[in-house]
Design a protein that fits this description.
By secondary structure, this protein is of the alpha/beta class. The chain folds into 2 domains: about 180 residues, Immunoglobulin-like, CATH 2.60.40.1500; about 375 residues, Glycosidases (TIM Barrel). The protein has 13 helices and 24 strands. Strands 1, 16, 17, 18, 19, 20, 21, 22, 23 and 24 form a 10-stranded mixed β-sheet that branches. Strands 2-3-6-7-8-9-12-13 form an 8-stranded parallel β-barrel, surrounded by 6 helices. Strand 8, helix 7 and strand 9 form a beta-alpha-beta unit. Helix 8 packs across helix 11. The termini are close together. This is Glycosyl hydrolases family 39 N-terminal catalytic domain-containing protein. It comes from Extremus antarcticus. InterPro entries: GH (IPR017853), GH39_cat (IPR049166), Glyco_hydro_39 (IPR000514), Glycosyl_Hydrolase_39 (IPR051923).
């Protein structure tokens, strides 16, 4: 039955229905077009030690609860040396260290897994698995160790980060032995079955100065690292190369060539093991400057990110012996630097980030279908900075333990089902249009629909996205489902929403006056506002011949998730 609260909401929506852009959205529950890959369960950060601090560990726990699919976490700096060795400062931006490898005065290796263990223990205790990044270079192994430590603030020149950790090793054998010892330690500590469930990748963005070596040296680095991992655990899942999207477009193809036909620098054999393929894709937001007649505003660029994806998928699709492997977008974000600040990053606190993510992940799934790619993960490079001001415009999922709206889009993705359904929307941009031109005319009112294996539960995500960070027209959605719930006369409806007044701790914080010292009661209010919330109380609607409909408004940059469950009346 429709409750009084729900009825009032529906009547209000109907009363205003003619005032905004009308969009028809339909879902055919009988038309399964494929499996919906659970890509939105991967996260990462530059700062590995953050996960072991109170707010970081709390967020790791929340990521582990996104389910039902397994969450993974990828981080830089797992092999970085603390410099000096007793100077561990994990709260610095773009920095972390573990002292996993040092040497004695005679150059003999000293292995110390204490800090890495603490990091991985934190993940595993909270139902998160490592997506292990075998990098960066320990100081004692670096061919160019000075300077080694970096000090980065939000407005630093980005190029200053590429210091001693970014160089090739002084000894490939010592590098390979380090990775072997690390993998072997993980097997001994966590068990073969557990470590088999991890992903092991080598380095980060070797086609830009994250790797201050040649391409051939990277192939050698990969060969020795993979050889070490597989020596410790022959059944481990290994891959790469985590190339940055855009520059040096032949890098990915040449790496794939090496794994098939190149000479393995570690074993002397042909090719190199490869169990998954990874690359990065980033958007390119800009700030449109003010003129005498037009105020300046933020403008996102989804096309830049999707072009990275399209180009990489096109390369991978050409390799018939590899193109069925799992493919990860190992960093998949609207901009390129989580720890940087500028006018262009004004989208990070509010509603643009989640609605952008819903729209772009769906297009990436569409591109994977187009190129027949086994798209397995889209990794969001955003986590938590400890001891920073509230809502400080960094690309993070939470601030001082308060969840930003972006985290709720991942809660929505976590509720999607396994079978993708055919949909149509009169307000959704075609795939090719978004890839080439982003969203610059009317807003993109898009839909992603799914069903469970029984067909008795539908999960439908609908968003209203535009690149411009400006007020735009609401969408008035007529939502209709056909061929659903055979034998059922009713359906239970749960409607989740991310908008200005739901699932939005940022708008709540602004209404409090942008406090940096909230009271205990205010903090509790912010915590509650950061959770995924329903638009109205759950209700029941009639199903006739497998069909039913709903009407609701969807403000600009808002996202809805409808969970529909058939039942006998």
């Amino acid at each position: 039955m429709i409750t009084k609260t729900s009825l009032v909401y529906v009547l209000l929506c109907l009363a205003s229905f003619s005032a905004a852009r009308h969009v028809n959205i339909s879902v055919d529950a009988s038309d399964v077009i494929g499996t919906l890959p659970p890509v939105a369960r991967f996260f990462g950060a530059d700062e590995p030690n953050q996960a072991t601090y109170p707010d970081g560990e709390s967020l790791i726990h929340d990521l582990g609860d996104l389910g039902p699919h397994q969450t993974y976490f990828r981080t830089h700096n797992l092999l970085t040396t603390c410099d000096p060795p007793d100077n561990i400062e994990p709260k610095r931006l773009k920095w972390g260290c573990t002292n996993a490898y040092t040497q004695d005065d005679s150059g003999n290796p000293i292995y110390n897994w204490t800090i890495i263990d603490k990091i991985f223990d934190t993940y595993l205790a909270n139902n998160v698995k490592p997506y292990v990044q075998a990098s960066f270079m320990p100081k004692a192994l670096s061919t160019n160790p000075e300077p080694y430590t970096l000090y980065f603030d939000a407005e630093s020149e980005y190029n200053q980060i590429y210091v001693g950790w970014s160089y090739p090793p002084t000894s490939w054998q010592k590098w390979g032995e380090l990775i072997y010892r690390w993998a072997m330690h993980c097997v001994e500590r966590y068990g073969k079955d557990e470590v088999e469930s991890w992903y092991w990748e080598v380095w980060n963005e070797p086609n830009i100065p994250y790797w201050n070596g040649t391409q051939t040296q990277y192939f050698t680095l990969y060969d020795y690292a993979v050889s070490g991992i597989l020596k410790a655990l022959p059944s481990a899942t290994v891959g790469g190369p985590e190339v940055a999207g855009g520059p040096d477009g032949d890098w990915l193809g040449l790496f794939l060539d090496h794994t098939i036909n190149g000479q393995n620098n570690a074993t002397g054999g042909k090719g190199a093991p490869l169990d998954f393929i990874s690359f990065h894709a980033k958007g390119s937001p800009t700030y449109i400057n003010a003129t005498n007649s037009v105020p300046g505003h933020l403008q996102m660029n989804m096309s830049a990110e999707l072009t990275n994806v399209k180009d990489a998928f096109a390369v991978i699709s050409n390799y018939t012996t590899l193109n069925t492997l799992p493919v990860f977008i190992g960093e998949d974000d609207p901009d390129s630097c989580a720890a940087c600040l500028s006018p262009e990053v004004g989208y990070r606190n509010g509603l643009i980030f989640p609605s952008y993510t819903a729209a772009v992940f769906t297009r990436e799934i569409d591109l994977a279908m187009k190129y027949n790619i086994n798209f397995t993960g889209a990794l969001t490079w955003a986590f938590q900075f400890e001891d920073h001001p509230y809502f400080d415009n960094f690309r993070v999922l939470a601030t001082n333990g308060i969840h930003k709206p972006i985290l709720n889009i991942f809660r929505m993705f976590g509720k999607m089902q396994s079978k993708r359904l055919q949909t149509s929307s009169t307000g959704q941009y075609p795939l090719d249009s978004v890839v080439t031109g982003s969203i610059r005319g009317e807003s993109d009112v898009g839909v992603l629909a799914s069903a469970d294996e029984t067909g008795n539960t539908l999960a439908v995500m609908i968003w209203n996205y535009h690149d411009d960070g400006l007020p735009k027209q609401d969408a008035q959605v007529s939502f209709n489902v056909t061929s659903a719930f055979p034998g059922c006369s009713e359906a239970d409806v749960t409607h989740y929403r991310i908008d200005q007044s739901h699932s939005n701790a940022y708008s709540t914080w602004l209404a409090m006056g942008s406090l940096q010292d909230p009271t205990k009661a205010q903090y509790a209010q912010l915590k509650a506002a950061g959770q995924l919330q329903m638009l109205y109380e759950p209700m029941s609607i009639k199903v006739e011949d497998g069909g039913f409909g709903l009407q609701f408004d969807l403000p600009i940059h808002a996202t809805s998730l409808l969970i529909l469950e058939g039942r006998q009346g």
